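Before the break, one more example. Copy the sequence into your notebook; we will annotate it together after we see the structure.
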Amino acid sequence: LALRPAPVAMGYLSWLSSSASDYLQHFVSDRVVTPVEYAEADFSEALAFLPHSYQVNSNRFTHGDHAFTYKARHTLLHPGENDPLLDPLPAPLDEKAVIFGNFNQLFKVGHDTFRAISQILKVTDNSVLAILNFTGAPDGPRGLPASFSRDAGIDARRVRVAPFCVSKFDFLRLASGADIFLDNFFYNAGTTGGDVLFAGVPTVTL
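Here is what the structure looks like once it is written out:
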């Protein structure tokens, strides 16, 4: 973008803050995500507000298409049935385990979020954390389970690495298998949070 491939460039959706640059002229948002009293001083871009929500979703998807399925739950509990590092579930976990999901990009899981999730897993014995297989994450998708084992004393097998979903339809269907979505403290879910709510999963966020 710094090479100016187009006469006008706009920021939208993926990063809900200013670029603090001179090569983005506009930023598309709404008045809740970007309160005017803060944005005027903090944004280098001119603001363009959508009337209700910055996040535009397709009406091609319906709640009925992504209702809870046992297949989705099974995939989250047993994402690598041929992977000895993941299966079987460690005792005392069973098929009734509570599935906490955090489907954000893994770099968003900061220290505070890590500590909070660790505490939740420690006090709920029959529970797992489901994450997505973001291969571009530091240390790969195995890095987070290893951290829980090394730094929090939690069996790495309780962190289930579910397959990355290429299509939105597949993600909505997979996410419906989680019981509760645990959001991050600092870098919250954006479109992922909207998708999880659309899939009918209760969400805990700040």
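Residues 30 and 52 are 7 Å apart (CA to CA). The mean pLDDT is 84. Try to locate both features in your own notes.
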